[in-house]
Amino acid sequence: MTKTLITIGIWAALGWLTGSWLGASTGWAVFAFGLLLMILVSGLQLSRISKWVRNIEEPPPPSVGPWDEVLAPIYRKLRQDRKEIDELTRQVDVIMLAAEALPDGAITLNESMLLTWCNQTACDHIGLQLEKDRNHSIFNILRAPEFNRYARQSTWPGPVLLHLQNEGQEKSLLVQLAPYGVGRFLIVTRDVTQVEKLETTRKDFVANVSHELRTPLTVLSGFLETMRDMPAESLSAEQKERYQNMMLEQAERMQAIVADLLTLSTLESAPTASGEPVRMSTVIHEALRQAQILSRGQHVFIENIAEDLCVTGMETELASAVSNLLTNAIRYTPKDGTITVSWYRTESGHACYSVQDTGIGIASQDIPRLTERFYRVDRGRSRATGGTGLGLAITKHVAMRHNAELTIHSRLGAGSIFSVAFPPNRVSIEES
Ligand code: ADP
Known about the structure:
- InterPro entries: BphY/WalK/GraS-like (IPR050351), HATPase_C_sf (IPR036890), HATPase_dom (IPR003594), His_kinase_dom (IPR005467), HisK_dim/P_dom (IPR003661), HisK_dim/P_sf (IPR036097), PAS (IPR000014), PAS-like_dom_sf (IPR035965).
- It is a multi-pass membrane protein.
- It comes from Pollutimonas subterranea.
- The protein is built from 13 helices and 13 strands.
- By secondary structure, the protein is of the alpha+beta class.
- A hairpin with a 5-residue loop joins strand 9 and strand 10 (351-357).
- Helix 1 (2-22) packs antiparallel against helix 2 (24-53) and helix 11 (315-331) runs antiparallel to helix 13 (391-401).
- The longest helix is centred in the middle third of the chain and has 37 residues, at 193-229.
- The radius of gyration is 44 Å and the shape is elongated.
- Adenosine-5'-diphosphate binds next to helix 11 and helix 13.
């Protein structure tokens, strides 16, 4: 303002000087010219300023006369605000990234329970799509009646367990609702499908173990009671021997179950040991020697064993897998059947142990369940031949601990092939 008044003053003085020298009209003309020039310059400056306003990210135009004093603080404030907005945006981005990284699903709802935001995990848990479902009621998205009842409570001290069907798969979700801010709600979802499965497996396992041990225990205590209650002389020596043999059989059965359970638990708790090269032919020959005793000459054995092929691992575990498959072949192959035992290197560099039999075979629907603990196709046959129902579970564990794969090919009535293929990095050749 002061600058403008000074400029007007200068032009007025110039006009007065010219007027007193060349006449009043010339003086007024000079003054008018000065004012016109000032208006023109000011218009020019304003047009530069209006151009800058359209592109406010740039620094303001230099030398815009009296406007310099106005524009400089505006631009400083703008820069300050922009910095603060950038920092806030960065913080929001970090929070959003953290929300996306959460292993739990997170959903926010407004006061009318309409979906406002959710992370990807929540989309996967509930099968929703943020863009499509935004502003839709959560009751239309999560249609489970248990959730409806839960969400309509006034407080939510604990989560609710929902069993949802998502893309053909059953999911167990723990869902917790919590109010936040003013009238807003947060839903946290946690996938507990695996935990539930594990819990069911654990319960089934305890029930199975109890069941398996109860039968021989009942038989055993039955015999003991009978022998205690009967006068000693009422039992013939032959009867006594028969009873004792039966009791021994039941005790041996329990022993076998406990031994297999201990093996399984050791396999599960011990860290995967890399082991050392094991000459498998020695292990297989020893298992075959035992198998022939078990077979009592009832089966034909064909051996096809690479003598110098070794696998890196734990010898005791490998021996247990080798003999499990072999004894199964004997137990499930009727008299005169053929059992072919092979140990060879495949073209891909794997080492493969396979036991093929011409036995009773397995129906295709049973094959995927054979490695479950205590799963037997024919309970009676398994027990009659001294089975515990744990052999294949142990074998599968041993295979897994050696990064090997157990495969089963079988057809009911046509025999089976059980193979364990070890990866090339565990395979070596040891010259004899
Ligand atoms: P088990 O002690 O009962 O043999 P396993 O875990 O070794 O337990 O085997 C599980 C079930 O798989 C057996 O009960 C049997 O029904 C079936 N099975 C295993 N090996 C064979 C085989 N070679 N031929 C036919 N069925 C088999």
